[in-house]
Design brief:
Strand content: 25-35%
Shape: elongated
Radius of gyration: 23 Å
Number of strands: 14
CATH superfamily of the largest domain: P-loop containing nucleotide triphosphate hydrolases
Oligomer: single chain
CATH class of the largest domain: Alpha Beta
Structural class: alpha/beta
CATH topology of the largest domain: Rossmann fold
């Protein structure tokens, strides 16, 4: 991963009438970085990607991608990036090989080396067995493999992947991320949206957005370490009354079931969390078996930040 910037976004805004889909986003991405976009459905992830790809004009703000202005130089930009949209983008009445040929020509790949490049991609993404099948006949996993091949057939320096593993099996998901890691190791910058916390852990850095606004940006490890409020695992019986009692406590930020335990996030500055938790449970008539510190996961961070943001918005 280099120090030079591949993407610079400053106060990016997109409105649809009165609705603000993207609300003054500012961030940058380094060359060779795997940069994750995490947020609820409707948070503005796909809209942001479409603006960065020059496919949608921003209402305000600016974006530099691969050294080009994403608004004024959109046509040049589209030849320098790869884009795999969330919805299936291949031509269903063409075979896999014909789709690759079409996209290679669309991106201006010289005909002299085109066959070798397509052959190498077919080998790398393991799509040789289905190269002569119509893409309309393929399962979701195979379609996504072909779509990824089409997105990188011209070896773009920057690759945008919008939910690339949605609907695929575990083996295909693992293969996708192996390819993504190889691309980044070779210097390709990858911006990927995902709902999977496991996939988010594979990113060098993550931006979390909610309602179009940036609510966190850091490495996965730093985001976990920075979660406000101590996390605790609680064994108590009966479980549901214990959950209700802790959820109503003044020091509880959020509480949830985690298997046969309770997972609890408490306010910073609580002098003796185990004692305070135990007292609430005893007052509620429940039996406390064990209280132990919990390690923050990305899911904990995501749920906490989105919840805190929505409370701050007055919902």
């Amino acid at each position: 991963m280099g120090d030079r910037l591949a993407v610079e976004v400053r106060d990016l805004v997109r409105r649809f009438g009165d609705f603000v889909a993207v609300d003054h986003l500012t961030f940058s991405i380094r060359e060779g970085e795997i940069f994750g976009f995490l947020g609820p459905n409707g948070a503005g992830k796909s809209t942001t990607i479409r603006m960065l790809c020059g496919l949608l004009l921003p209402s305000d703000g600016a974006a530099q991608v691969a050294g080009l202005d994403a608004t004024r130089e959109a046509e040049r930009l589209r030849r320098r990036i790869g884009y795999m949209p969330q919805l299936f983008s291949l031509y269903p009445d063409l075979t896999c090989h014909e789709n690759l040929e079409f996209y290679a020509g669309l991106y201006g790949l010289p005909s002299a080396g085109r066959a070798d490049r397509i052959a190498a991609l077919s080998e790398r993404l393991q799509i040789y067995p289905i190269r002569d099948q119509l893409t309309a006949t393929l399962s979701t996993g195979w379609r996504q493999r072909v779509a990824l091949a089409c997105a990188i057939v011209h070896e773009p320096p920057i690759l945008f992947l919008d939910e690339p593993t949605s609907g695929v099996d575990a083996a295909t998901r693992q293969h996708f991320w192996d390819v993504i890691a190889d691309l980044a190791a070779d210097g390709t910058t990858v911006l990927v949206t995902t709902h999977s916390m496991e996939e988010a852990e594979r990113c060098n850095r993550l931006v979390m957005i909610d309602r179009g606004r940036l609510i966190a940006l850091d490495t996965p490890a730093a985001l976990r370490a920075g979660l406000a409020g101590g996390l605790w695992q609680v064994d108590a019986e009966p479980l549901l009354p214990a959950l209700a009692a802790l959820s109503a406590s003044d020091f509880t930020l959020d509480a949830s079931l985690s298997g046969a335990q309770l997972r609890l996030r408490v306010t910073d500055g609580l002098a003796d969390p185990p004692a305070a938790i135990a007292q609430v449970l005893r007052d509620a008539g429940t039996t406390v078996a064990h209280i132990s510190p919990g390690a923050a996961s990305l899911e904990d961070v995501f749920v906490a930040l989105v919840g805190d943001h929505e409370q701050g918005e007055g919902t």
